[in-house]
TrEMBL record:
This is ABC-2 family transporter protein. The keyword Membrane applies. The chain crosses the membrane at residues 43-64, 105-124, 145-171, 183-206, 213-231, 261-282, 318-338, 366-388, 418-439, 459-479, 486-504, 530-551. Keywords: Membrane, Transmembrane, Transmembrane helix. The keyword Disulfide bond does not apply.
Length: 559
């Protein structure tokens, strides 16, 4: 029998349960440097993409003359313009910098909000889930140091993007461009994105898995977007509903029109409250676990769970469920606005001839134009899901679970094919949910311009287009696993070229070819060209074939 020697008399024994506050933050500085070094490539691409978007948007709008800007202002006063843009400050005298603020803030908050959510979950919940945090905390690293480092680095990245973007706006110049307005815009966006990052920090304490934290955080982001859009459509320049959203806190600062700083205090207040709540929860949960109890599994697995397809389904099913539920509700609600769109647009045509010149005077054309915009955004959401699920193989490989599966009598192609099969089915399901939710919302509200068959005819060409994003992600992971995240560049490019490519008169037609959505017809206005749809289908087949070839040829793990 062994005995443990007692400490010498007079030696103080540390009380683990009452550790000093400072000790819980030991090593925070080193963790900050580690995260910045580890994410330097990711941070570079996020920064480059956002800053380039500022530069591109400002330069593109600078090519508009006064008449074109007046037409654009008329467009932004329509319900679809308000929903996809902003509350309409400055449309009475629309200038490029005012258009940048009114139309761009929403999309910069979405982009940086997604970045903030992914950053926070990656460096908190995902690290615990993969057990890497245990290795880190085995060193002289305090309990809260990783989370504080994640928050600090997120603040640094958002601040850096805000400073560089503000400097770009100042350098571009303009009639109403001032230093205060430029940095008011970028700081408001940065603070709003920090709000969503700290929402993810709270959910990372509640859930036991990174996927759950990301899904719930994205749901909050989507709800905030919809609340702002609906609130701005209820009342000019925003209603009380708008003010519950962090999007509105950035937009209501009114840069380049009448800069007001106090709405930024709402973002700062939300940041402080979420930080306190997240810290409270983090101090009271078990390491590696979440505050929400997980349901106990069955003692024995069912025979239906055997095989790579069942494994992939269990890994992806909740992401698909929450994505389908969230997108379904969002696009159903959008569909219910269709009858109002035609009525509002008809009234606007009577009062503003410029709108009639842009859209004509056919209510069915108004509805088709609004649906076209909604479908573009909807399919970009589906493409984002395809990219995330296409990266599931990388997540399994990084966590070491892929090696365990492949150590059994499971072929590489079978395991990887199962992951892509389930991801492909999920992508198709979300495309179906997106289109038919719009139809259901319109039907429920009494919109009768387009039938179920019309929506079906619009749907099927989108399927190979969104699967191209999945195939490209799979190919990048198979051949260049360290750079699989570059698949997001295709999505960003497709969004930018699809939404703003027409603004550049000298943009060559070939610049559109890399965008899979470019090859689709105008929804409800044109019939799909068989050659384009077949070409997209062949592109999907080639991309998946390249993915399987690359995955079979390289080492595992390679990430």
């Amino acid at each position: 029998m062994s005995a443990v020697a007692a400490p010498p008399a007079g030696t103080a024994v540390p009380d683990v349960g009452t550790a000093r506050f400072g000790s819980t933050l030991t090593g925070t500085g080193r963790m900050v440097r580690f995260i910045l070094r580890r994410d330097r490539v990711r941070i570079f691409w996020w920064t480059f993409s956002i800053v380039a978007f500022y530069l591109y948007f400002m330069a593109a709008l600078g090519t508009f003359d006064a008449e074109a800007m007046a037409g654009r202002a008329a467009l932004m006063e329509t319900p679809s313009g308000i929903a996809m843009g902003g509350p309409g400050y400055g449309v009475e005298d629309y200038t490029p910098e005012r258009a940048v603020a009114n139309e761009g803030i929403t999309w910069w908050v979405i982009a940086l909000g997604v970045m903030s959510i992914l950053h926070m979950v990656r460096h908190t919940r995902t690290e615990e889930e993969s057990s890497r945090s245990e290795l880190v905390r085995a060193n002289a690293v305090g309990r809260h140091a990783p989370a504080v480092a994640a928050i600090a680095t997120l603040a640094l990245v958002n601040a850096f993007i805000a400073v560089v973007s503000g400097a770009i706006l100042v350098a571009m110049g303009g009639e109403y461009v001032t230093v205060a307005d430029s940095f008011g815009l970028t700081v408001g966006v940065a603070l709003a994105s920090m709000v969503f990052g700290l929402v993810a920090f709270v959910f990372a304490q509640l859930t036991a898995h990174g996927r759950g934290a990301i899904g719930l955080s994205m749901a909050v982001l989507g709800a905030a977007f919809f609340a702002r859009a609906a609130g701005d459509m209820i009342e000019t320049h925003g209603s009380p509903l708008s003010w519950v959203s962090a999007f509105a806190w950035a937009q209501q600062m009114r840069p380049f029109v009448d800069l007001t700083w106090w709405p930024a205090l709402l973002s700062l207040t939300a940041i402080v409250l979420l930080l306190l709540l997240g810290s409270f929860l983090a101090s009271r949960r078990d390491f590696g676990g979440g505050m929400l109890a997980e349901r106990a599994g069955q003692a024995e697995a069912a025979s239906s769970l055997a095989g790579p397809i069942a494994l992939a389904w269990r890994q992806q099913r909740w992401a698909l469920f929450w994505s389908a539920l969230g997108l379904g509700l969002l696009w159903f609600a959008s569909g219910t606005m269709l009858p109002d769109i035609s009525g509002l647009m008809s009234d606007m045509v009577e009062s503003n001839p410029m709108i009639g010149a842009l859209f004509g005077d056919d209510p069915e054309g108004f509805t088709a134009a609004f649906l076209g915009i909604m479908l573009l955004y909807g399919m970009l959401c589906v493409a984002a899901y395809a990219i995330v699920m296409g990266g599931r193989g990388k997540a399994e490989e990084s966590a070491g679970r892929a090696e365990l599966v492949l150590a059994r009598p499971v072929a590489r192609s079978t395991w990887y094919g199962a992951q892509l099969l389930v991801a492909g089915i999920g992508t198709v399901v979300l495309a179906v949910v997106t289109v038919y939710s719009m139809w259901a919302g319109g039907a429920a509200a009494g919109e009768d311009f387009f039938s179920f068959g019309d929506y079906t005819e619009v749907l099927w060409p989108y399927i190979p287009a969104v699967l191209c994003f999945l195939g490209f992600t799979a190919t990048m992971y198979a051949w260049f696993p360290q750079h699989a995240g570059l698949a997001w560049i295709l999505l960003a490019y497709s969004f930018g070229i699809g939404m703003f490519g027409a603004l550049l008169e000298n943009l060559p037609e070939e610049a559109n070819y890399a965008n899979p959505l470019y090859w689709l017809p105008e929804p409800f206005a044109e019939s799909p060209e068989a050659s384009h749809v077949i070409g997209l289908g062949l592109a999907v087949v080639v991309l998946f074939a390249l993915a399987f070839i690359g995955f079979r040829r390289r080492d595992i793990p390679a990430v």
